[in-house]
UniProtKB/TrEMBL annotation:
<keyword id="KW-0809">Transit peptide</keyword>
<protein>
    <recommendedName>
        <fullName>Large ribosomal subunit protein bL35m</fullName>
    </recommendedName>
</protein>
<keyword id="KW-0687">Ribonucleoprotein</keyword>
<dbReference type="GO" id="GO:0005840">
    <property type="term" value="C:ribosome"/>
</dbReference>
<dbReference type="InterPro" id="IPR037229">
    <property type="entry name" value="Ribosomal_bL35_sf"/>
</dbReference>
<dbReference type="Pfam" id="PF01632">
    <property type="entry name" value="Ribosomal_L35p"/>
</dbReference>
<keyword id="KW-0496">Mitochondrion</keyword>
<dbReference type="InterPro" id="IPR021137">
    <property type="entry name" value="Ribosomal_bL35-like"/>
</dbReference>
<dbReference type="GO" id="GO:0005739">
    <property type="term" value="C:mitochondrion"/>
</dbReference>
<dbReference type="GO" id="GO:0006412">
    <property type="term" value="P:translation"/>
</dbReference>
<keyword id="KW-0689">Ribosomal protein</keyword>
<comment type="similarity">
    <text>Belongs to the bacterial ribosomal protein bL35 family.</text>
</comment>
<dbReference type="InterPro" id="IPR019338">
    <property type="entry name" value="Ribosomal_bL35m"/>
</dbReference>
<dbReference type="GO" id="GO:1990904">
    <property type="term" value="C:ribonucleoprotein complex"/>
</dbReference>
<dbReference type="GO" id="GO:0003735">
    <property type="term" value="F:structural constituent of ribosome"/>
</dbReference>
Length: 177
């Protein structure tokens, strides 16, 4: 079986190599490296790659107009003490319940309220429970200080801090009638 594949691989190797070279050049241009001069000299002048230079130029023009995507990652080691740091955006947008779940308000709850009906305004005031994947990610974004239960006076989330319906998180013993 391998004897049949090797001649085919040798036949398409120049095409594959030139495509990989073009992809490498495009990725370098997106990162900000200037390799346009090397592109013209490095790509051989055959029928396969002459059309790639014009598309390569178009892709480069588009890639220079792209704005960087904001990323809120965890600082693994702080410069002063070498500890992990909390992502403040996670604390602003999400709230951790005592049992480990995270909740967040609905999106657009303050936008154009005058346009929304009273039932829709009531639904927008409700909160959404994050799923398990999101909760694990948010737990990684905060330090152990924020994972400990915090007790506030007249906490509106007090009934939601316990989960008595699940046997794993139940605090009170189950009463059977």
């Amino acid at each position: 079986m391998f004897r049949r594949v090797i001649p085919v691989a040798r036949a398409i190797w120049p095409i594959t190599n030139s495509c990989l070279n073009t992809a490498r050049i495009i990725s370098n241009e997106i990162r900000g490296y200037s390799t346009l001069k090397r592109t013209i000299t490095a790509v051989p002048n055959n029928g396969v790659t002459t059309g790639l230079l014009s598309t390569n130029k178009q892709i480069l023009d588009i890639s220079q107009n792209l704005a960087p995507v904001p990323v809120r990652t965890v600082t693994k080691f702080s410069l002063k003490r070498g500890k992990r740091k909390t992502v403040k955006a996670a604390l602003k947008r999400f709230f951790r319940l005592h049992w480990g779940g995270w909740i967040r308000p609905k999106v657009g709850r303050h936008k154009k309220i005058w346009k929304k009906s009273p039932p829709q305004q009531r639904r927008l005031r409700q909160h959404i429970l994050c799923n398990g994947t999101q909760s694990v990610m948010l737990d990684k974004m905060v330090t152990k200080f924020w994972k400990k239960p915090k007790y506030y006076v007249e906490d509106p989330y007090e009934p939601y801090h316990t989960r008595e319906e699940f046997h794993i998180t139940r605090k009170k013993p189950l009463v059977r009638h």
